[in-house]
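Researcher: I'd like a candidate sequence for this fold, 249 residues long. If you have to choose between options at a position, lean toward the conservative one.
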């Protein structure tokens, strides 16, 4: 397969690391973005343990809520490694509370990290993709962006916004060889879901038809397909990867 440069925001996180591994296995060069200094060390150890070195991986610091900082990161990656052809927007946070208890800070932080970040990164890679006539933008939404969730007005709004963004940008660039799609995970076994209280986790798993939480690889496999040439006629789509938790047309 043709080796492409892939930027994965939040690439050092639970799902992000799985995406990085799978894209490397599919022949790509991955650049994992991170924001908290130190969080890249575990990623580097895990990638090295999987046999992936600097020939196929790199790390890039940058706060994707900051438009200028994101631009500087993209320019630095492209100057060092080459043009970014695959962008996976995976950075995300939760700040759960019922609306009655939610602070404006919790609202703005979640919108900035999960939704504005997608604008910030896409803006800085889209011209290059269009000029080269090939690109893949894959946005991680969530089952809770589709169906809503108690205590997640901020997160559900941001993830639903990601789906709207995906469809609108898809219209704008498909004739230039660039596809824009979303993947909506259900509950995936990462630090984000390990933070859920044990009894609630058990209740959640009990409600998943597959009888288990998903793995980062379950998500990564869908991403790898959307990043490939085989998916060139798929754009503006949202692929659910949720073990049957929520089925919709
Ligand atoms: P993690 O917390 O493991 O990973 C999230 C990543 O986002 C971290 O690597 C973090 O970087 C990064 N990040 C947060 N803020 C910023 C920022 N301002 N700039 C750059 N990077 C940032 O969570 P998951 O792997 O579980 O989640 C990945 C994505 O999947 C998220 O978008 C999440 O909403 C979505 N999702 C997850 C589900 C799940 O069940 N786990 C279900 C549905 C959707 P750092 O480590 O440096 O802080």
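Model: Candidate sequence:
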């Amino acid at each position: 397969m043709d080796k492409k440069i892939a930027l994965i925001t939040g690439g050092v996180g639970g799902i992000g690391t799985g995406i990085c591994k799978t894209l490397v296995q599919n022949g790509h060069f991955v650049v994992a973005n991170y924001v908290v200094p130190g969080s890249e060390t575990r990623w580097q150890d895990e990638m090295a343990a999987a046999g992936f070195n600097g020939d196929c991986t790199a790390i890039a610091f940058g706060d994707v809520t900051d438009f200028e900082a994101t631009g500087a990161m993209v320019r630095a990656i492209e100057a060092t490694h080459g043009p970014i052809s695959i962008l996976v927007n995976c950075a995300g946070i939760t700040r759960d509370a019922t609306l009655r208890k939610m602070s404006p800070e919790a609202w703005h932080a979640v919108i900035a990290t999960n939704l504005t970040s997608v604008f910030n990164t896409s803006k800085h890679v889209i011209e290059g993709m269009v000029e080269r006539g090939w690109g893949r933008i894959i946005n991680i939404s969530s089952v809770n962006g589709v169906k809503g969730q108690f205590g997640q007005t901020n997160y559900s709004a941001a993830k639903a916004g990601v789906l709207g963004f995906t469809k609108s940008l898809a219209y704008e660039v498909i004739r230039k060889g660039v596809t824009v799609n979303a993947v909506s995970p259900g509950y995936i076994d990462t630090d984000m879901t390990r933070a859920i209280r044990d009894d609630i986790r058990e209740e959640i798993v009990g409600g998943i038809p597959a009888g288990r939480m998903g793995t980062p690889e379950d998500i990564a496999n869908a991403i790898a397909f959307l990043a490939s040439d085989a998916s060139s006629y798929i754009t503006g789509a949202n692929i659910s990867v949720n073990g049957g938790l929520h089925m919709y047309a």
